Amino acid sequence: MALLSNTAVLLGKELRTEFRSRELLTTTVVFILIVVVLFSFTFDPTSAESRRFAGSLLWLAFLFAASLMLQPCFLREQNNDTLSALRLSVGDPFAIFVAKLAANTLFLLLTELLMLPVFSILFNVPIFPVFGRLVLVLFLGSLGVSIAGTALSAVSAQARMRELLLPLLLLPLLTPVLVASTQVTVGLLDAQPFMEWKGIEFLVVFDVVFLTALWLFGEYLLEE
Amino acid sequence: MAKHALGSAVVVLLLVAAAYGAFFIAPTDVKQGLIYRILFLHVSSAWTGLTAFFICFVGNLMYVWRRAPQWDWLGTSAAEVGLAFTTVVLVTGPIWAHPVWGIWWTWDARLTSTFVLWLLYVSYLLLRTLVEEPDRRALFSALFGIFAFLDVPLVFGSIRWWRTQHPQPVVMGGPGSGLDPTMWKVLFFSWMAMLALMTLLLMARYKLEAMRGDMEIVRREAEAA
């Protein structure tokens, strides 16, 4: 129970900090937009071609964006010297992680939902008939990215070259998320949309495995 | 010193015997001809690499639990040695694949996951170079090593489900698969020889890491004084 109430308070803090400036959201949206536009130059964006590449393209853009977006997650605390205060005031350090990863999942999902209509128009890929299922895979994928990313941003915040280090640690670790979410998304954007449930199950497994690992080992990441 | 020389001599003898077995004792494959003999190096290195990564994982877990620097030394030594063997796997694979498959590389489950595995441990070693403080470096790399090791079956599963071309498991595969008994014996012997080589390298690397650790302590004491 304490975990839940602590998490709720901390999540409120994360959301308040972000929505005061909306820095992270705005920059990430613009970043994804740039990547998507640049991608369009690398192949012939006809409708048929786009359907084949759209899923992979979207997820690559999201992954790159996430590896940048997750940087400030612990860096902010460190720059403001608030990490020790957080650790002292919150009994279970897992609550700090849950709040941060919930906030990150929410931010990622928000930027993805903002980008989806733009993407659909630019590449002529209809998303409305499959919107609900698309949100499901976006949510499970973003959750996986946030779980691993939040944990590793606590690591990279205390290293040199941290801007490069986080993508370096995070991206290979996220291979299974990329493969599974891309498979599902490509299926949904097909001319005859179909749902690859195996991919959804796979994402759930990934999320559960890494959430458990974070629950077991998370507290060590926050040691002073 | 003498013990070390003796150990090295034994390992060299084992490797020569394994090479002799691979070239002269194992029968030639009906379909693939001579080139298949690279299997004895390729597969035994792959198993040895995985063994080393498993040792690294154990070292990482033990470090998080016990916080003794010895476990950190073991973890980093095993990661480096495992990386060396995995590099051999990644190099010998294409040499075999080109004449047999007609291509150097394909993005199939085992090739891709071995490559991702290799990348994960490269990141692990890079992370170690980028954290200054020794205790923190040990702890962070141990935690990343644990995450990376947990990721391996997921990487493999995810890629295997959606595409694959690599020969299906021959050893402990389904019915109808299997190696010629002599090939099996030679392969097993090659693996043992490789494990001996791994042990030798691991011990040498561990000693070096221990010296580095001691040096660091002395340097810190000197700076404090």
Written overview of the protein:
The complex is a heterodimer of chains A (224) and B (225). Chain A has 224 residues and is mainly alpha-helical. Chain A has one domain. Helix content of chain A is 83%, strand content 0%. Chain A has ten helices and no strands. Chain A is globular, with a radius of gyration of 18 Å. Chain B is mainly alpha-helical and 225 residues long. The relative contact order of chain B is 0.15. Chain B has one domain. The interface between A and B is medium-sized, with 29 and 27 residues.
Features:
heterodimer; A: 224 residues; mainly alpha; 10 helices; 83% helix; 0% strand; B: 225 residues; 6 helices; 80% helix; globular
Secondary structure blueprint with pairings:
The complex is a heterodimer of chains A (224) and B (225).
Chain A: H1 2-21, H2 23-42, H3 47-69, H4 72-79, H5 83-89, H6 93-123, H7 131-156, H8 162-173, H9 175-188, H10 197-221
Chain B: H1 2-25, H2 39-66, H3 69-101, H4 109-130, H5 134-162, H6 181-224
Helix pairs in contact in B: 1-6, 2-3, 2-5, 2-6, 3-4, 3-6, 4-5
Number of H- or I-type helical stretches of chain B: 6
Number of strands of chain B: 0
Alpha-beta classification of chain B: mainly alpha
Number of domains of chain B: 1
For the record, the count of structural domains of chain A works out to 1
Strand portion of chain B: under 5%
Q: Can I get a quick summary?
A:
Chain A is mainly α and 224 residues long. Helix content of chain A is 83%, strand content 0%.
